[in-house]
Amino acid sequence: MPCRSLRRGPLFLMLLLTALTGCGSGGDASSAPTTAHPRRSFRYYPEQHATAQRISASDCRRLAAVAARHTERKLRHASEPTPPNSRCQLEGRDVHVSITLDTAYAARQRYENRMAEQVQFNAPYPAKDPHHVPGVGDRAAGEHFASWIPAYSTLYAVRGNRWLTLAYSVTGESRPRRLAAAVALARLAFGLTAR
Questions:
Q1: DSSP secondary-structure letter at 88?
Q2: Exposed, middle or buried, 97 (CB in 10 Å: 0-12/13-18/19+)?
Q3: Measured distance CA(90)–CA(180) in Å, rounded
Q4: At what angle do helices 175-192 and 57-71 cross, to 10 degrees?
Q5: 169: phi > 0 → left, psi -120 to 50 → alpha, else beta; which?
Q6: Positive or negative, the Cα torsion across 134, 135, 141, 146?
Q7: What phi, psi does 52 have (nearest 5°)?
Q8: Dist CA 85 CA 165 (whole Å)
Q9: Cα-Cα-Cα-Cα dihedral sign, residues 27, 28, 31, 32
Q10: pLDDT tens figures, 146-165
């Protein structure tokens, strides 16, 4: 008798629906939502596995040489070449450049999530909103795989499962010139680490 009354009650229906749909917090990455930007939707890329790609010490030296030519200043460089988060730091008089390559699992999805958060939390501030940059990240409509945040003087870009973050600061340099230098360094970094 108690079982028969439970089957007909709303509690049973709720339990049945919960069991059939799950609670929504489990599952693998392929069940994760694929929308990361309020203005567009992204598709899930199954090739988001971690890789051993990195910015090596020699890559860092080449990046430092290009940055030194651009800034017309002597630069020191320091390398942390260990994947999945390898880094290259460039320092000089009034110059600070930080280049980080993330190749851990789902780096691409984390990039998309980061850009969505940037839009959501900084919408009233255009200088903190992502400005899409052509020819740096993966090709896509709207060029949304490379984004420049003017307020932070930082370029974020993704190719495959490589997420590059490049903070470029040179005192007294205009924003367009900083962006152009960051784009050149990002393209070089992607080229050097595509192996």
A1: E
A2: buried
A3: 17
A4: 160
A5: beta
A6: negative
A7: -95, 10
A8: 11
A9: positive
A10: 999 999 999 999 999 999 99
CA nearest to 189, candidates 87, 95, 78: 87
pTM of the model: 0.74
Beta bridge partners of 102: 85, 163
How far from 195 is each of 55, 85, 148, CA to CA, in Å?
11, 16, 25
- What residues contact 18, with CB distance under 8 A and at least 6 apart? none
Secondary structure (3-state) at 100: strand
Q: Edge-to-edge, what's the strand order for the sheet holding 131-132?
A: 76-80, 85-92, 95-102, 162-170, 154-159, 146-149, 131-132
- What is d(CA 178, CA 193) in angstroms, rounded to the nearest whole number? 22
* pLDDT tens readout for residues 109-158: 999 999 999 999 887 888 999 999 999 999 987 788 999 999 999 999 99
H-type helices in 23-85, by residue range?
A: 57-71
